[in-house]
Amino acid sequence: MAYSVSKTLFDPEGRFFGYSVDRRSRNEIIICEVSSGQVVSRFQLDMQDEILAFTWITQKQSKASVKKASKRTTNGEVVQVNGGAVPLKNLAVMLKNGAILILSPYHNDISNKIVNESEIKCLSSYSDSNGIFYGYDKELKAIKLFNATENKSVSILEFSVDKNIDLIQVLKDNTLLLASASIYLVSPNDSIDYIRLPVPRGHGTRIVSLVQSIRNPDIIVSARINDTTLCVHSLHKKGTVTTVDTLLTVVSIHNFEHDDNEYLATLNDNGVIQICQLPTGKGQTITFSQIRTDSRVPLTGFYVKDGIITVSWFQDMHPRFAKFPCRDSDYIIETEENSSESQEEDDDKNEDEIINILESEKEEVIDSNNIVETAEELYELISNNIEDESRVISICASNNSNVGETVKNLNKSKASRLFMILAQYFTSNVVYSSNLKLWIKWIIVTHGRILIESSETVQVLQLLSSILDEEKKVLPTMLSLQGKLTLLKAQLSLRNEIASISLEDEEKNINSTTVYTVADENMTYDNGETDDFPNVEE
Asked: For the chain, which has fewer Cβ within 10 Å, the N-terminal or C-terminal residue?
């Protein structure tokens, strides 16, 4: 097999799906859109950058900045999503060398790199984190707090009670659950306060997944490595309330509400998803429903929202998704056996398709009907369509003349509105017209004082700054490559000129050559030259 998928994860809202691919010469992280299945960004890492784990983190936006947010779909259409809110999501990737990479589904560049001197064992985030997430440093025996926009840890809290921490879970009240074989309830204050839940008898292996009950925050459910039993714990009683035997080794747990009941959904090591009702005490009869494939292809993950469960699997190294209602029924997904012979050819073809899709999206933003000649016409066109975000984006993307004069004529409200539309589109899309950068630049230059008066625009300015800083990092590499290409082009041109001159000289020599045959001596002379001397004597 040329390469394999090692880790997968749905984002907290089920919109994006991230997975890592281990290749012979490099590792790669790919993010795709669940609704369309299209790849939106991919990141290539060196082979030595071993990926240990990753988690999704969410950067909150203010109410004003998300009021009219929009996003471009894979067919190029600009639509309102999530009631107009486009939360800023990033994938935090933990490497074995201690570094944490912050990757965005909206760009193909690494948004940030957090440096650690020692390896981080685990990462955890939560839905309202605002870019904040936690990790455990085994060497320092400490809990580290990270921010997606910072290049090092924000704070460090010593926790030396158990150096084998492999899992961190953030609860609803922002307290932490740390787990090895034991479970610790930790309050991340200036001084660490914690409560230890003892290891249940007969279940002493390492914990691999934890969830907190939605209806009863006192209840915690844990799954352990090489263990088919789920343990239901009570934080108040500091012990195990009951257990659930799944008959299969559990890899991860999720919980959800449906029809006034709370359910547990587990992914097992053989790629089968099991669903059962969360038990509230001992002696309850537990029945399971299953979702699996009809072949040896395993399911790799799932996400539950509004009574619908979305599952994932891979077909010839490409992610596939299916949705089912959460009922007490078994589902079997029809799949085909993976073929390893054509994996690299299919992947190359898929990359070409992605490039074509991105290029077509870029073309669809630009509309020749929106191109105007004068600044007055451009100002009037923008003013009349300032509430239509998709039209404004198309107008700006289609015009790169008279931008400065047009922006200067905008009043305070229109300038702020135009900036928010263009900046949100710029930060929330994989592709965009280069003309949008020109418009954003002129708005900042001309109306900078107005922009810094609003907290909403300041937040967007900070995001733009971080994106530009990341793009600036690759500039020396690009200039170096440009220099090498220019040198190679010059060498190739010189080589062609020399070859052309040599060919012309050779042709001239051939044309100037005359052959003489002397019949007496049967000899041939070049250029009419001969060693015979004329007989001067008559």
From this structure: C
